[in-house]
Design brief:
Layout: E1 2-4, E2 6-7, E3 11-14, E4 25-28, H1 29-37, E5 45-49, H2 54-63, E6 67-71, H3 77-92, H4 97-110, E7 119-123
Parallel strand pairs: 1-5, 5-6
Antiparallel strand pairs: 2-3, 3-4, 6-7
Length: about 140
């Protein structure tokens, strides 16, 4: 599951169904986690591609998904987009979650972007991001 938008240590801001500028709908991190967990088939990974969201990822791993990624501080839009694009490209190419995360961080650094240290990966104790592959390459 991917979220791209605005957040802080314990809030996430969703867009409302308005076609004009607006403040958005503010949701607590707990309410967001409850909504994501309210399914028979929870996600394996939650990526919060939003500012200061790393504070929320431990709770997501405890309650929702075995892997979570968040940003340790404010991240520029371009950095967030570059990270996500490289992360998902690596996942689609059969890389492990760990390799995809490291590849995406490297893409930021190689591009001279300042946010390469912001994306933070956490995982449950019983899983290994270095051996978990979300997409198997076609044979």
């Amino acid at each position: 599951m991917h979220f791209s938008g605005h957040s802080d240590d314990d809030l996430i801001v969703f867009e409302d169904e308005l076609d004009e500028p607006h403040e958005g709908v503010i949701v607590t991190a707990r309410a967001f986690a409850n909504a994501v967990a309210a399914t028979d088939d929870p996600p394996l990974l939650v990526l919060l591609n939003s500012c200061n969201s790393a504070a929320q990822i431990d709770g997501l791993v405890e309650r929702v998904a075995p892997f979570a990624i968040g940003m340790a501080d404010e991240i520029d839009d371009g950095d967030a987009i570059t990270y996500a694009a490289q992360f998902y490209a690596a996942v689609a190419n059969g890389q492990s979650i760990r390799a995809a995360h490291l590849s995406a961080q490297a893409a930021l650094e190689l591009a001279g972007l300042t946010g390469h240290e912001l994306p933070t990966l956490v995982h449950a104790a019983d899983v290994d991001p270095a051996t978990t592959i979300l997409v198997k390459a076609a044979e």
